[in-house]
């Protein structure tokens, strides 16, 4: 208290001093603090006198600045602010009464809270705080698409995918999927199918839905879930219904001569099996990207489809003869394709039915299922004839040159490939699996014509000397090995389908042009060189 | 200074409109105390003049954001800007707060009879003030050299009036200690002369 009083006394004494009272008078006003107050008040008096001293004078020209000159740059900045910030500031200050300010604040807070709640609701998993609002949001979203069945179906697909994502997250975190989530998936899928029927984009929607079903089935198989619930049992029914719809759609498409264009596409893609996969990947951008996480199957087919595509495209254009010798390594790989070329026609017919059963679940679920069924059949019909011609297994040899030929060009016993090609097809394709190679021949047809003559010449000269045919098949097997491994995951589907191909090829091969006979002759010629396939071809 | 609150309000309103004459009026009203304030803090009249101009330029730039709530608010805002300008100026120059002798000689009151005492007195005080803390310097400068009341100083420093009084007390105590310890002879002589 005393200190505070002394501070007050000092301040009051300084005030008195400032007012012109004598120094002693000011000290005497506070006798209880006179001893301490005197030296401090003296300093204060010195400060006062120092401040009263006239300040040094400057040149008047310096003390009166030219503001117009100094403010030359300021107005620009000021005008910008006055127009934007100052106007807004003044509007808020003067145009908004306190009540309005309160209203604006509350409205802004409500919008922020509502927006955050809406965002959280949309992404809220089941049984969470905001989940009860989900149905309301769904209704609002579906209400916006009342007159657009496509959009409605897409919304249902989105919801189903969202529930599926939740299920996958729960499966990863807890290893258990609540039955309610899967039931929601089923409900959304059913609604998506029902609405998709009314649209003209059934192919795309069905493929997406089928991909969803496949993904759900995979998820169910990987995690613990109450699959016995009645809701989940409906998924099989929906899947069957969807397949039926897809088949009907394909049938209608086939009847309307659509297959021809599709065939051309499939030919470009190469083997029917590979096209099947490739198509499945194309459409389902969203679907497939997610499904690929779990399935190696899809990846494998893509590789298969791509490899043949490139080879096919190059071979026909390039020289079969030159290319063949350059890359014996590749020739064998292609050779197996030759035999399949003959077979393709039958294979597709046989495959379509099995393919959906086997693969549909993993890969094709998206869109491929429909495509393959339609395409495979047409593909063989359209090109089968050329395929055998394509057998020019040598041609493939040429293609490889584009890829790997560069690596092994030294060996390029140009002639040998021809021999190998003939022999190889007989050997490997028949025995193991030229399954995937089948499509390749389709594209190769053209080269087949050229290679035949070429083969004749080289066989005599260099083929024997190099005796490449023996090694060629082995190389070919190695080259196929990775593909086979990959396909093995995909499933037995591809392998199963492909295996029958060689058998069926015998039929179409017989109908194949004389070139096929010539090749057989060549194979016979090569038979003594140790080609295992030689005896099998007939 | 502006004579009345209404005058200052009108000047600021015209400044809001971009009228440069309003700036000149503000400078006429507050230029000298600001220059003095800067001079006491810097010890260089030329630098003080430069800082004064800078202070009023800053006022012009920010006048559109200033909401007039009375003379006290403007005074507080003015010396807040002045303090910021001084701080930035000192940083730029990175110079010590010493007073050149020539400048100090100009401070002397030529009419006074005891010129020598005044010179020594002011030299000691200038040096002692420069050794105070920033807040203490602000309080002493605004109190004795600018002539602001405790309330105005409190507003300018964003402090309470009681805090300003406490700062003033500590500043004067420290000044007294500096003068007594480092310049005892002069200080005692000054005290004796003052007593007589």
Description:
The complex is a heterodimer of chains A (538) and B (196). Chain A is an all-alpha fold. Helices cover 75% and strands 1% of the residues of chain A. Chain A is built from 34 helices and two strands. In chain A, strands 1-2 form a two-stranded parallel ribbon. In chain A, helix 17 crosses helix 25. In chain A, 47% of the residues are buried. Chain B is mainly α and 196 residues long. Chain B is built from ten helices and no strands. Chain B has helices spanning 5-16, 20-42, 45-62, 71-93, 101-107, 115-130, 134-146, 150-157, 161-182, 184-195. Mean pLDDT of chain B is 78; it is low at 99-113 and 189-196. The chains are: A mainly alpha (538), B mainly alpha (196). At the A-B interface, helix 1, helix 3, helix 5 and helix 6 of A face helix 2, helix 3, helix 5, helix 6 and helix 7 of B.
Produce the secondary structure layout:
The complex is a heterodimer of chains A (538) and B (196).
Chain A: H1 2-18, H2 23-28, H3 34-52, H4 60-63, H5 67-70, H6 74-95, H7 98-122, H8 134-143, H9 149-174, E1 176-177, H10 179-196, H11 202-222, E2 224-225, H12 230-255, H13 259-269, H14 272-281, H15 285-294, H16 299-317, H17 320-326, H18 330-334, H19 338-342, H20 346-350, H21 354-358, H22 370-374, H23 378-382, H24 386-390, H25 394-405, H26 415-431, H27 439-443, H28 445-449, H29 451-466, H30 468-490, H31 492-498, H32 500-511, H33 514-526, H34 533-536
Parallel strand pairs in A: 1-2
Helix pairs in contact in A: 1-3, 9-10, 9-11, 10-11, 10-12, 11-12, 11-15, 13-14, 14-16, 16-25, 16-30, 17-25, 26-29, 26-30, 26-33, 30-31
Chain B: H1 5-16, H2 20-42, H3 45-62, H4 71-93, H5 101-107, H6 115-130, H7 134-146, H8 150-157, H9 161-182, H10 184-195
Helix pairs in contact in B: 1-2, 2-3, 2-4, 2-7, 3-4, 4-8, 6-9, 7-9, 8-9, 9-10
């Amino acid at each position: 208290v005393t200190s505070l009083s002394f501070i007050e006394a000092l301040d009051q004494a300084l005030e008195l001093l400032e007012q012109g009272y004598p120094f002693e008078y000011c000290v005497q006003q506070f006798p209880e603090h006179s001893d301490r107050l005197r030296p401090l008040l003296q300093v204060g008096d010195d400060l006062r006198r120092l401040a009263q001293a006239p300040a040094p004078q400057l040149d008047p020209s310096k003390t009166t600045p030219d503001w117009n000159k100094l403010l030359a740059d300021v107005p620009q900045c000021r005008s910008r602010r006055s127009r934007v910030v100052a106007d807004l500031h003044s509007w808020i200050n003067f145009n908004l009464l306190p009540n309005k300010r309160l209203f604006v604040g509350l409205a802004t807070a409500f919008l922020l809270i509502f927006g955050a709640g809406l965002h959280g609701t949309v992404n809220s998993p089941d049984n969470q705080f905001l989940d009860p609002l989900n149905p309301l949001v769904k209704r609002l979203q579906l209400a916006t698409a009342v007159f657009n069945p496509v959009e409605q179906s897409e919304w249902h697909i989105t919801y189903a995918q969202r529930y599926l994502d939740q299920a996958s997250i729960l499966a990863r975190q807890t290893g258990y999927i609540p039955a309610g989530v899967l039931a929601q998936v089923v409900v959304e899928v059913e609604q998506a199918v029902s609405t998709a029927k009314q649209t003209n984009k059934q192919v795309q929607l069905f493929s997406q839905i089928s991909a969803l079903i496949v993904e759900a089935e995979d998820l169910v198989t990987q995690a613990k879930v109450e699959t016995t619930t009645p809701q989940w049992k409906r998924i099989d029914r929906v899947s069957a219904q969807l397949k039926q719809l897809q088949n009907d759609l394909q049938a209608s498409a086939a009847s309307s001569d659509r297959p021809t264009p599709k065939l051309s596409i499939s030919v470009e893609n190469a083997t029917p099996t590979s096209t099947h996969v490739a198509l499945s990947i194309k459409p389902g951008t969203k679907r497939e990207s997610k499904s690929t996480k779990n399935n190696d199957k899809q990846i494998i087919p893509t590789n298969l489809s791509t490899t043949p595509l490139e080879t096919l495209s190059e071979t026909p254009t390039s020289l079969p003869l030159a290319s063949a010798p350059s890359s014996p390594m590749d020739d064998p790989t292609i050779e197996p394709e030759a035999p399949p070329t003959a077979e393709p026609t039958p294979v597709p017919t046989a495959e379509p039915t099995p393919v959906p059963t086997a693969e549909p679940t993993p890969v094709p679920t998206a869109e491929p299922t429909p495509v393959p069924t339609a395409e495979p059949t047409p593909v063989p019909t359209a090109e089968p004839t050329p395929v055998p011609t394509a057998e020019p297994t040598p041609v493939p040899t040429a293609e490889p040159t584009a890829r790997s030929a560069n690596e092994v060009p030294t060996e390029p016993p140009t002639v040998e490939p021809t021999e190998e090609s003939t022999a190889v097809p007989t050997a490997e394709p028949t025995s193991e699996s030229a399954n995937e190679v089948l499509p390749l021949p389709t594209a190769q047809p053209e080269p087949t014509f050229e290679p035949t003559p070429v083969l004749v010449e080289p066989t005599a000269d260099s083929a024997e000397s190099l005796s490449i045919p023996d090694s060629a098949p082995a190389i070919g097997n190695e080259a196929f090995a990775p593909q086979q491994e990959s396909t093995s995951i995909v499933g037995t589907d591809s392998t199963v389908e492909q295996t029958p191909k060689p058998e069926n090829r015998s039929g179409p091969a017989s109908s194949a042009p004389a070139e096929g006979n010539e090749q057989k002759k060549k194979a016979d010629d090569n038979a003594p060189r140790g080609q295992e396939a030689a005896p099998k071809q007939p | 200074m502006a004579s009345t609150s209404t005058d200052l309000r009108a000047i600021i309103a015209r400044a809001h409109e971009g009228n440069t004459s309003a700036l000149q009026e503000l400078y006429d009203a507050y230029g000298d105390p600001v220059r003095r304030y800067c001079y006491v803090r810097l010890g260089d009249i030329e630098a003080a003049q430069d800082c004064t101009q800078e202070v009023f330029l800053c006022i012009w730039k920010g006048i559109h954001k200033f909401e007039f709530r009375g003379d006290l608010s403007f005074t507080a805002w003015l010396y807040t800007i002045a303090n910021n300008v001084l701080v930035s100026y000192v940083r730029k120059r990175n110079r010590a707060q010493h007073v050149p002798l020539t400048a100090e000689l100009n401070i002397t009151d030529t009419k006074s009879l005891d010129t020598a005492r005044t010179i020594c007195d002011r030299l000691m005080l200038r040096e002692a003030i420069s050794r105070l803390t920033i807040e203490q310097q602000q309080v002493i400068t605004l109190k004795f050299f600018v002539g602001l009341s405790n309330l105005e100083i409190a507003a300018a420093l964003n402090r309470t009036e009681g805090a300003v009084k406490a700062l003033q007390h500590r500043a004067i105590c420290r000044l007294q200690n500096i003068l007594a310890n480092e310049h005892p002879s002069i200080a005692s002589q000054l005290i004796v002369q003052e007593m007589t």
